[in-house]
C-alpha cells in the first residue's frame, strides 16, 4: 500500500505515537561481520524491534519495528533502506521495477548511497558504497518514549577494491533509526588515514508519488542550481524562480546551499518532509520518458554534499543527518 492513502484519511502526522510503545530494551555493540541471518539475529537481533531476515535473492535485510506500527527495512548490501512504512502500512519509499538484489549491481530504489563520489567522475557513477556489503556494528532499542528508538548502525571501511578506486583509509558509519513514525538517517565519515581526503556524497532517496504530474518540491525557490538534464558532466547553472518544482520533462538538478527543510508533495495531500543537517545541497531527479514504465510513480529528492566537496583531515570526521516525516498538506 502506498503513501497515497495517508492524507486521504487525514491521518498524516509528524509526531511520535508515544503512548503505544512497548519496545524491548537492549543495546549491543559487536564489531563482527556476521555471515548469515541466523548469526545476525543471534548477535544483533532485538525481538520485536530489530530483526534480520532473508530479503530478495537471499540477501540479508535488517527490519526495524517501532511499537507505534512504523517499520523500515535495509539491505546490508549497499546499506540501502528499501522500505519505510507508516503505522497505517503505507509505504513512503519507491523501489524501481528493474531493481535487482543479487549484488550484480546497486539496488535501484529506496535510499541508495552515493559515496565517495556523487554522479559521474573519476570513479564509477555514484562511487562504491552502494555496491558493497556493509557490516552491522550496533543495534539498539529502548522502551522510554522520548529516548532511543529501534536503531541499527552499519559500517563500511576500505578494502583492496575501494583502495584501487579511492586511495584512502576511511570508516563510514551509517545509523538508521525510527523515531516513532519518522525515519532518521545519519552518515558519519571518519578519516582513518594519515592524509586528508575529499569526497562528494548523497542519499539518493526515491519517494513514491501518486503521479509525477501531481508531485511538487517546495523550499527551493531563489536557489542556484546545476541543471544536469542535457549533459550531467557539463551542467548548466540556473536560478530557480518557481515556488514549487514540478515535473514536465526529464529533471536532474542539484540545488546548491539548499535550506535544511525541503518537502515533496506526493499528490494526495501528503508530503514527505526532509529536515537535514550537514548535507548542504538537494538533488531533484525524475527520469521522465527515459524510464517509461516507472517515472510516473516516483521522484528522487536527495540530500547531497556536492557543490563543495567535504574535506576530512586524519582522525577527524564529517557528519550529516536527515529526518524524514510524513506531513499533511491537504489544507
Ligand atoms: O541523482 C540523479 C542522478 O545522478 C541522475 O543523473 C541519474 O543518473 C540518477 O542519479 C540515477 O543514477 P543511477 O546510476 O542509479 O542509474
How would you describe this structure to a colleague?
This protein has 331 residues and is mostly beta strands. The strands form three sheets. Strands 1-7-8-9-10-22-19-18-13-16 form a ten-stranded antiparallel beta sheet. Mean pLDDT is 90; it is low at 4-34. It has helices at 4-8, 37-44, 160-165, and strands at residues 26-29, 50-54, 60-65, 71-75, 80-85, 113-114, 135-141, 151-157, 170-179, 182-191, 197-203, 206-208, 216-218, 224-227, 236-239, 244-245, 251-255, 261-265, 270-277, 281-286, 298-312, 317-328. The chain has a single domain, classed as Beta-galactosidase, Chain A, domain 5, CATH 2.70.98.10. A hairpin with an 8-residue loop joins strand 14 (224-227) and strand 15 (236-239). The structure holds 6-O-phosphono-beta-D-tagatofuranose.
Instruction: Label the overall shape.
Output: globular
- Gross CATH architecture: Distorted Sandwich
> Rg to the nearest angstrom?
19 Å
Share of residues in strands: 35-45%
Tell me the helix content: under 10%
What is the CATH class designation?
A: Mainly Beta
Number of E-state strands = 22
Which ligands does the model contain, each kind named once?
A: 6-O-phosphono-beta-D-tagatofuranose
Quaternary: single chain
Amino acid at each position: 500500500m502506498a503513501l497515497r492513502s495517508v492524507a486521504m484519511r487525514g491521518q498524516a502526522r509528524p509526531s511520535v505515537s508515544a503512548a503505544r510503545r512497548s519496545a524491548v530494551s537492549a543495546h549491543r555493540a559487536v564489531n563482527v561481520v556476521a555471515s548469515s541471518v541466523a548469526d545476525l539475529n543471534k548477535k544483533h537481533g532485538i525481538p520485536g524491534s530489530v530483526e534480520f531476515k532473508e530479503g530478495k535473492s537471499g540477501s540479508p535485510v535488517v527490519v526495524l519495528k517501532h511499537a507505534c506500527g512504523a517499520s523500515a527495512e535495509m539491505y546490508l548490501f549497499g546499506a540501502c533502506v528499501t522500505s519505510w512504512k507508516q503505522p497505517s502500512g503505507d509505504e513512503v519509499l519507491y523501489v524501481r521495477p528493474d531493481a535487482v538484489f543479487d549484488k550484480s549491481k546497486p539496488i535501484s530504489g529506496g535510499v541508495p548511497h552515493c559515496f565517495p563520489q556523487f554522479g559521474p567522475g573519476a570513479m564509477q557513477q555514484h562511487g562504491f558504497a552502494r555496491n558493497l556489503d556493509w557490516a552491522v556494528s550496533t543495534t539498539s532499542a529502548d522502551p522510554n518514549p522520548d529516548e532511543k528508538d529501534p536503531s541499527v548502525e552499519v559500517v563500511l571501511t576500505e578494502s583492496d577494491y575501494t583502495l584501487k578506486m579511492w586511495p584512502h583509509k576511511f570508516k563510514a558509519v551509517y545509523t538508521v533509526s525510527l523515531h516513532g513514525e519518522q525515519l532518521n538517517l545519519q552518515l558519519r565519515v571518519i578519516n582513518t588515514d594519515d592524509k586528508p581526503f575529499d569526497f562528494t556524497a548523497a542519499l539518493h532517496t526515491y519517494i513514491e508519488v501518486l503521479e509525477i504530474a501531481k508531485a511538487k518540491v517546495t523550499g527551493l525557490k531563489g536557489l542556484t542550481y546545476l541543471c544536469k538534464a542535457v549533459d550531467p558532466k557539463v551542467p548548466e547553472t540556473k536560478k530557480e524562480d518557481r515556488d514549487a518544482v514540478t515535473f514536465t520533462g526529464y529533471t536532474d538538478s542539484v540545488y546548491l546551499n539548499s535550506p535544511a527543510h525541503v518537502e515533496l508533495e506526493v499528490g494526495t495531500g501528503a508530503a514527505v518532509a526532509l529536515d537535514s543537517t550537514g548535507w548542504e545541497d538537494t538533488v531533484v531527479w525524475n527520469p521522465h520518458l527515459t524510464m517509461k514504465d516507472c517515472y510516473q510513480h516516483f521522484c528522487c529528492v536527495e540530500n547531497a554534499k556536492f557543490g563543495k566537496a567535504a574535506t576530512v583531515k586524519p582522525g577527524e570526521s564529517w557528519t550529516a543527518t536527515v529526518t524524514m516525516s510524513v506531513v499533511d498538506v491537504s489544507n
